[in-house]
Amino acid sequence: MKKLLTDFDVIVVGGGHAGIEAAHIAAQMGSRTLLITLDPNKIGTMPCNPAIGGIGKGHIVFEVSALGGLMPKLCTQTYLQARMLNTKKGPAVQGLRLQIDKESYSKLSKTYLESINNLTILGDTVEDIIVNNNIIEGVKTAQNQIFRAPCVIFTTGTFLNGRVHIGLENFAAGRRGENAVTGLSKSLTKLGLQMGRLKTGTPPRLSRESIDFSKLTLQQPDNLKFLFEFTPHEAKHTRDCYITYTNEKTHEIIRQSLHLSAMYSGNISGKGPRYCPSIEDKIARFPDKTGHHIFVEPESASTEVVYPSGISTSLPLETQKQFINSIKGFENAEIIYPGYAIEYDFVYPHQLNHTLEVRHVNGLFLAGQINGTTGYEEAAGQGIIAGINAHLKAHKQPSFILSRHEGYIGVMIDDLVSLGIDEPYRMFTSRAESRLTLRQDNVFYRLADKSYNLGLIDKSFYETIQKEQHIIQDAIRDLKNGKNNEKLLALLGKDEQNIAQLHQMTNNTLNERSIQSLWAEIRYEPYLKREQREIEKAKKYQTLIIPAAFDYTDLPGLSKELQEKLKKHKPTSIAQAALIQGITPAAISVLIFKIQEFEKKHKIH
User: Fold this and answer.
1) What b-and-e string marks burial along 442-463, b requiring 16 or more CB atoms within 10 Å of the CB?
2) Which of 183, 161, 158, 184 is nearest to 171 (CA)?
3) What is the C-alpha to C-alpha distance for residues 520 and 152, in angstroms, rounded to an integer?
4) CB 419 within 8 A of CB 372
5) Is the pTM of this model over 0.90?
6) What does each C-alpha distance from 101 to 242, 305, 469 come to in angstroms?
7) CB-based burial of residue 479 (10 Å sphere; 0-12 exposed, 13-18 middle, 19+ buried)?
8) What are phi and psi of 501, to 5 degrees?
């Protein structure tokens, strides 16, 4: 066993998906790292959907992979089914989604972390933060132990004053069967951090044996050789997923019981995720819709628990039983665990730097749901950035920032820090202005230099990535030079026969990922050039600083609504102002002109 030290370079609090990435990367980079979590046997637990990836979210996981993260490796070894979503559209907005064996994922997470020499795992609860003159010095645990480090990362998920709601009943919990953390929010508030409440939910879990799958629609998997990792693998498919629907009878049962839902009884103050509403919300908000999708997904190959995605609820257990049994294929379905809503404390993320360090507390980093995000993927993306920067800070090295034009992780962090949130944040491809550039197929090429320079990947892997990139560049050059031009362009389709022919015509030098990247670079070429011009313009805007004393009140050319938005978000640059919803190019032009006038009048240079 490892001897438990008291002094570390980095301390990570919380063993969820943000904590895993933060602890893993900090230790791999060379920091003596301590991971403190309530129960080490529940590291990497998936309390909600047993799947990773999807539209936008999958892009984040690819970037975690390119930065040397752990989530993609865990996915490859524990997935049950693979699907590529949005294939009717171009590669820029497609999303890889893997159905995961949650039991195997959690066990493998712990095994991986335990194998890292620089990483110590401790089962305990952090109750207080040790700070001196707004400089982090360490943490104090419930077992009255003090651990010191110049950098501490909090990745507390839904545990901060977490409260579970089932119907009109509610009780303190971090998630099903686990205690809430009740004292830490006070410590964060004492540091001057502004905090709020958010809510999320989960559906009831069903017994597989009690479901009539003959009445459900089978969801066909995709035979994919490339997942979130760079290297190909042997495709596997070990469990099926299905689809069914709610119906008018389901909706009527829920409508009659809305007053018993925690969301509608007034028991919950936290705001829920707009893009992942409860079944009560769906029925109340869309009264004319006669049915809603339910994705029937296995939670593990080792258990009979089934996850009916799309019907998260906080209705009483008896009502849950009634509406579940009204659904096609669920007539005799048995509930293993009831669905519930959970509300929890979070920190408003506009108080962070782009490194995810708290602006006014030196050495304190926050990642994951504590910053107001949803999802395992968003948490992992923040965790790896916080872990990298905590290591760099602990060793007095320059920080690392991924801009919104370099990655979806950069988009997410910039949105959180620059705009803040008023509801749980979820990633979509539509949030990225440069989504034609920030594709899944080119993620390793575009982030390889950064990863190698930070020491996140070794030289051999870096050279392998470069070699594949050069092969694609050579193929594009040949196309532009007219070599096999018409034939190759005709073969840039998606079906296997065309791919096989393209392999032959390029001497089998292109794999499936290379072909996808080649297709995208050619098909998107004029749009990529335009996108690059916009990126350069955005960089120029970033240097146009808005003076702190600049007043938006009664500014000619800006509506009252835009003036109020600018006052609320307080952008520090024109680039940040341009991100605010509703700000038009015309409004940006007015701002630039008025700021230049202001600087000239007040002799600001």
Assistant:
1) bbbbbbbebbbebebbeeebbe
2) 161
3) 41
4) no
5) yes
6) 16, 11, 33
7) middle
8) -65, -40
Residue with the two structure tokens 């979509």: 428
CB of 187 closer than 8 Å to CB of 298: no
pLDDT, mean over the chain: 91
User: Taking residues 295-306, what's their average pLDDT?
Assistant: 97
Nearest CA to 84 out of 205, 228, 268 is that of: 228
**DSSP secondary structure letters along 521-539:** HHHTHHHHHHHHHHHHHHH
CB-CB neighbours of 557 under 10 Å: 12
CA distances from 142 to 139, 171, 217, 370 (A): 10, 21, 50, 20
Instruction: Report the residue count for the chain.
Output: 605
Count other C-beta atoms under 10 Å from residue 533's C-beta. 10
Token pair recorded at residue 504: 């032959």
Q: Locate tokens 């998606």: which residue?
A: 494
- Tokens 């008023």 correspond to what residue? 422
First-to-last CA distance in the chain? 60
Tens of pLDDT along 388-438?
A: 999 999 999 999 999 999 999 999 999 999 888 989 999 999 999 899 999
* Residue scoring higher pLDDT (602 or 509): 602
Question: How far is Cα 555 from Cα 551, in angstroms, rounded to an integer?
Answer: 8
> How many Cβ atoms sit within 10 Å of the Cβ of residue 231?
10
In the block, which residue shows the tokens 């996140």? 456
Check: CB of residue 291 under 8 Å from CB of residue 247: yes
The residues that bridge with 198 in the sheet, in sequence order, are 271, 344
What gap in Å lies between CA 593 and CA 71, rounded to an integer? 46
